[in-house]
Amino acid sequence: MNSYGSLARLDLAGETFLVHRLDAVPGSEHLPLSHKILLENLLRHEDGRTVTAGQIASLVRGRVAGVTDVRRRILAVTRVSPRHQRSPGADGPRRAA
Fold first, then answer.
1. What's the pTM value of the predicted model, to 2 decimals?
2. pLDDT tens, N- to C-terminus, the chain (97 residues)
3. Are 48 and 42 in contact (CB under 8 A)?
4. Which strands form 15-20's sheet, in the order they lie side by side?
5. Which helix or strand (DSSP H or E) is residue 24 part of?
């Protein structure tokens, strides 16, 4: 999903990558760096079930309950399991198709 329209192409050194722009999320410019890192991770993993647009909005608004829930869920999403050797985006930006 891409609820905030944050997915963008980045052309760098002759290659194209897909990245999520933090400035697409209103209020993200006021977040501390640690929350911006978490926000980028949430945007990459947003699927409407594990990570929702509402949880992303809670992080930006700073609701403690929402942030705690979001952190717990994103940690679950990014853990390596035997079935999935890497989580989506574990190597940084994806190359555009």
1. 0.65
2. 999 999 999 999 999 999 999 999 999 998 899 999 999 999 999 999 999 999 999 889 885 444 555 556 656 655 555 554 444 555 566 677 6
3. no
4. 7-12, 15-20, 94-95
5. none
